[in-house]
């Protein structure tokens, strides 16, 4: 059983009888000599994506859950279930759209670099790469000289994702998108 000061972002623990993915750890050092260092940890329940936040002392123990990270690739979608394949063993792992939540907006056949988080042989969550390349399928026409200003316009992608892009971009262009912040990075 790991102590709070040994936990790392991306780990999985059991907290309040739920499987929780560690999203963020914030260390709060005491202002006085006798105070204990506190670890403010943000969790996300899996499945369900409910956010939990709790503070622990450094020697508080949590129940670790054996987590396996595997390189996976999107195979196909059947109604509300997405199927991913392990790139080494070729095992298929289903996961429902509700569990994926907003991550589903980035899933396409061209997606590379996705990690699957497996607990007891079940896919409980995916980790998207930090950036993805997607092609704009719908946006208003580009404006000449638009690169001189910082104005933006909405752009729609095949998965249903809509983000703000610079006004000089045209329909059919491929762009890089930051998956953590849902924002345009650059042309691809």
From TrEMBL:
Residues 132-187 form the Elongation factor P C-terminal domain. Pfam families: EFP, EFP_N, Elong-fact-P_C. It comes from the Bacteria. Residues 69-124 form the Translation elongation factor P/YeiP central domain. InterPro entries: Elong-fact-P_C, NA-bd_OB-fold, Rib_uL2_dom2, Transl_elong_fac_P/YeiP, Transl_elong_KOW-like, Transl_elong_p-like_YeiP, Transl_elong_P/YeiP_cen, Transl_elong_P/YeiP_CS. NCBIfam families: PRK04542.1 (NF003392). Belongs to the elongation factor P family. HAMAP family: EFP. This is Elongation factor P-like protein. It comes from Thalassolituus hydrocarboniclasticus. The gene is yeiP.
């Amino acid at each position: 059983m790991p102590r709070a000061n040994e936990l790392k972002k991306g780990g999985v623990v059991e907290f309040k009888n739920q499987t929780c993915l560690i999203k963020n750890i914030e260390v709060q050092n005491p202002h006085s000599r006798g105070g204990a260092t506190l670890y403010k940890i943000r969790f996300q329940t899996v499945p369900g994506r409910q956010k939990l936040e709790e503070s622990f002392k450094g020697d508080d123990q949590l129940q670790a859950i054996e987590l396996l990270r595997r390189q996976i690739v999107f195979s196909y979608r059947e109604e509300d279930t997405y199927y991913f394949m392990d790139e080494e063993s070729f095992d298929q792992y289903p996961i429902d759209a509700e569990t994926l939540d907003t991550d589903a907006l980035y899933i396409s056949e061209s997606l590379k670099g996705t990690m699957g988080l497996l607990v007891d042989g079940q896919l409980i969550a995916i980790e998207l790469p930090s950036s993805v390349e997607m092609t704009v399928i719908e946006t208003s026409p580009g404006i000449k000289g638009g690169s001189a200003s910082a104005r933006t316009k909405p752009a729609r992608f095949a998965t249903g994702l809509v983000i703000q892009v610079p006004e000089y971009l045209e329909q059919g262009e491929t762009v890089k998108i930051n998956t953590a912040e849902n924002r345009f990075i650059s042309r691809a």
